[in-house]
Amino acid sequence: MAFKVLQLLMDQGMEDYRRGRLAQAEKLFRDAIQAKPDLANAMHMLGLICRRTRRVEQAAEWMGKSVELDATNAGWFANLAEAWMSLSQVEKGIACFQRAHALAPGDRQISGALGQALLAGRRGAEALPFLKQTAAARADDPEAQANVALALVDMDDEDGAIAWARRAHEMAPGMAKYAAMLG
Question: Which terminus of the chain faces fewer neighbouring Cβ atoms within 10 Å, N or C?
Fold first, then answer.
């Protein structure tokens, strides 16, 4: 298949994806992969479509293939990590978020997601610096403050956890979950 035809498949697939025409986009990306079996971008897009259509196992499979072919895209690793987390494969999710963070250490969204994944894996000490960074960047977000408290609970730092939970509760006094953190 000529390069121009392949590019047209990809361009139209991206347009269909952006417009929510997922079945059409999926067909175009599959056609592109049939023409060029090592087309990592098309594989990743198929993974995104599978995730949006609740076929998370297939999403992880396609995204995994894409990062095997191109291990330089932090966003792709983060998307794969989210798929693994959705499948309750926490350690695989953490590993992918760590890879994404290594590729894009300044990306606050990836850092925050890594902190959340580490927290889900009950690795509060490792999560803490990422969660504190997120809490500082989102100083008005009670959930970010509460996540720091949860990491401190995991580390058996009761006083620290109470202080951070109090911050969350003060920001959103009507939220029962923050009040419950205080006992």
Answer: C
